[in-house]
What does this fold into?
Amino acid sequence: MLPLGIYFVTNLLGWFLTMGGFFLLILPSLLIGFFFIFTNFEIVLEKQKGNAALRTSYVLVKSHFWQILEGYLLVGVAVILLISLVNKLNNHSLLFSLLLLVMSFACSWFVQVYMYLVYKQVKRMSTKVDASGSMRWIWIISLFGWGFVIVSLFVFWSGLMHLLHIPSQIYQNIPQMV
It folds into this structure.
């Protein structure tokens, strides 16, 4: 498979797992997505594929969870505050909007570079990555989430079909019932 195809399929798998957690509850999806933040670096830099890239990212983040979370939140809050501050000064001019756009790109680039540096530091600290960590709980939460969506859609569709087949006499008698 071409490297771009591996990148796409692995990110699609990560999305599937993250969205399954989102459908169950929002918090599991944030946690699952956080565990997979190094997946793209593993694909591009280490030439890993699919589940191996996801598993290595999971193990790396799991072994340094609090340090990575602390740095990620600190940078995230700083970027949000900076953009909010500049946005408050907005005078709705074209030049200002262009400045805000350039600043947003610069902040995005900064966050990517920061995450790359964190990845390299974590990778260096974890000289031998034991990628045998179990991601079973992620699969279980994701599959429960997707199952919940499928059942919900089935119930919604069944209810909708039931409402569409209600005889018109019932609709005519509703004002009399009230």
About this structure: The chain is about 85% helix and 0% strand. Helices lie at 3-24, 26-35, 39-46, 50-63, 65-88, 94-125, 136-164, 168-177. The mean pLDDT is 82.
